[in-house]
Design a protein that fits this description.
The protein has helices spanning 56-61, 68-79, 268-287, 291-301, and strands at 17-19, 26-28, 30-32, 39-41, 45-50, 89-96, 104-114, 118-123, 138-145, 150-154, 157-160, 164-169, 176-178, 186-187, 199-203, 211-217, 234-243, 252-254, 258-265, 303-308, 314-321. By secondary structure, the protein is of the alpha+beta class. The chain starts with 16 loop residues before the first strand and ends in a 6-residue tail after the last strand.
């Protein structure tokens, strides 16, 4: 798994395709094996995506400005009738020429920027880790200073925006799956480490991969305990490359400093086992350790983190610092 380097960035003057949030480009609440692509890129090409986030009426009640996000959402809510079974408004599918089942799609997140000077958080009686203690709905608009990239939770509480897409995934092997739980096709991973400069590796299940993306976040705590982050529309520049030389069962990621493996399951215990097992597999295949050595190194040098506990299945990820490899 090579680190993201300057060589992955689009060259000056290179033509970048753009995918905008219009009704024809929306996959609402699903990853669909039979969806038709709305745009096609060659392996190694970059594409710019402009996502949306929220309910336009709710955002209006919260006094959000009438910006491109709200205007695009009004059109999408009025015109897109094929919805569900999940909640996310995703862009796609993006077809990647040459991608075939058994390959890996390398997604280089070249850049991620906010589209709006706000985000929002909400919880409801049917969602969240403590929904029995909070059996009602609340919404909150959270302002973003586009110059300093600081979020204002209240006049006395500020924290930095670290934008990332909660949901990036390929079409599943068959059928239409809910956009809420992540899986072998990646999807709603809600992993706050997947910021600009990160590379995500996703096992391809269908011809042309059929990538969907959305669920923009400006910030999130590990766990995402009330079921939402600071939700916000984002602009992303992605480079999509077909890897015929890689074969994975589950998605992985690599930042400039860490290799990340992920596990998803209805229970945290099994999610942890899967993330650990995949880290061991990485250390054996990519770093040449024996399986016993890999298990030991994972115990003494790799951090386990709870990604989220609210998406229908739990997520756990392992963080391997690349700096420990001195040769």
């Amino acid at each position: 798994m090579p680190a993201l380097t300057a060589g992955f960035l689009p060259q000056a003057g290179a033509q970048t395709k753009v995918l905008k949030a219009i009704p024809a480009n929306i996959q609402w609440g699903r990853y669909d094996a039979d969806a038709k692509p709305v745009i096609t890129v060659k392996s190694g090409e970059t594409i710019r995506v402009e996502t949306v986030s929220g309910n336009p009426d709710t955002l209006a009640r919260l006094d959000a400005p009438e910006d491109d996000n709200v205007r695009e959402l009004r059109t999408i809510y009025a015109e897109v009738k094929d919805r569900g079974p999940g909640p996310h408004i995703l862009l796609g599918p993006i077809a990647v020429e040459g991608a075939a089942p058994g390959d890996v799609l390398q997604v280089d997140l070249v850049d991620i920027q906010p589209r709006s000077a706000y985000g929002f958080n909400n919880f409801g009686p049917a969602t969240g880790l403590l929904n029995d203690e909070f059996p009602y709905s609340r919404q909150k608009l959270i302002k973003l200073d586009l110059t300093t990239k600081m979020l204002e939770f209240s006049p006395s509480i500020h924290f930095p925006a670290k934008p990332f897409f909660g949901s990036i995934g390929v079409a599943p092997a068959a059928g239409r799956v809910n956009s809420a739980p992540p899986g072998y096709y990646a999807g709603n991973m809600d992993n706050k480490e997947i910021v600009a400069g990160t590379t995500v590796f996703i096992p391809v299940q269908r011809p042309q991969a059929l990538l969907d993306i959305g669920d923009g976040h400006l910030a999130m705590g590990d766990g995402e305990v009330d079921v939402t982050a600071v939700e916000s529309p984002l602009i992303g520049v992605l480079r999509l490359t077909v890897r015929k030389d890689m074969h994975l069962l589950y998605p992985r990621a690599e930042t400039p400093t860490h290799v990340i493996t992920m596990g998803f399951h209805e229970t945290l215990d099994e999610a942890a086992r899967r993330a650990t097992r995949d880290m061991i597999d990485y250390l054996v295949s990519a770093r040449g350790l024996t399986r016993d050595e890999a298990y030991m190194l994972t115990s003494v040098a790799v951090d386990m983190r709870v990604t989220q506990v609210v998406d229908g299945v739990r997520g756990v990820h392992m963080m391997l610092p690349k700096a420990i490899f001195t040769k």
